[in-house]
Amino acid sequence: GGDLSAMQSMMMAKGMMGMMGKSAGGKGSKGGKVKGPKAGTQGNIRKLFVGGLTKQTGEQAIKDFFSQFGAIKELKMINDDAGISKGYCFVTFEDIGSSKLALDNYESNIIGGKWVDVKPSEWDGPKPGDWYCPNCGDVVFAKRDKCNMCGFHAGGMAQQSVQRVTARPGDWNCPSCGDLVFASKSKCHIC
């Protein structure tokens, strides 16, 4: 009985925390896949993360909605390799006041009949192995050999043709493909 009673108590607490809007694990907690910055962080106040978009929500619908708050400097849609929306984007306003208006509208940010999560954007910078595209300057994740922004293909020449992010002590570059490999790994994950 003791184990069952403890398990029931834990499940009851988890359920009650969920009803109170507090997380005790599961979806939306640290263990789940979360897109965008942590709630409550300041980030770049002019650049906003917009999450919870449907795959059908188009660029024009997003522009139409956010332009009510002020002039949009840039809208960056995030799509998969097939060109289908990943369900989030980044909206950058010309001024901070417009961005604050969109953030203040939090509960009423509805696009295409669906509420969307709007938060300040946050980026910690490139991770080890990420590289800057020599063609457009965009940061490309280490796992890719092609720039998502302009299509530049680094191929096997990645080490010579692109600027790699600085490695930490003990990290090493694969002699075959030039990819940065963490010190804790004994073989390259690319080749």
Architecture overview:
The protein has 191 residues and is an alpha+beta fold. Helices cover 20% and strands 23% of the residues. It contains four helices and eleven strands. The strands form four sheets. A four-stranded antiparallel β-sheet has the order 2-3-1-6, covered by helices on one side. A hairpin with a 6-residue loop joins strand 7 (131-132) and strand 8. The radius of gyration is 21 Å and the shape is elongated. The protein starts with a helix and ends in a 10-residue tail after the last strand. Residues 1-43 and 157-163 have low confidence and may be disordered.
Short account of what is shown:
The chain is an alpha+beta fold. It has helices at 2-19, 59-66, 96-104, 158-161, and strands at residues 44-51, 72-79, 85-93, 110-111, 114-115, 117-121, 131-132, 139-140, 163-164, 172-173, 180-181.
The percent range for strand residues is: 15-25%
Spans of at least 5 consecutive residues with low confidence: 1-43, 157-163
Order the strands across the largest sheet as they lie in space.
2-3-1-6
Mind summarizing the main beta sheet? 4 strands, antiparallel
The first-to-last residue Cα distance is 53 Å
Instruction: State the helix count.
Output: 4
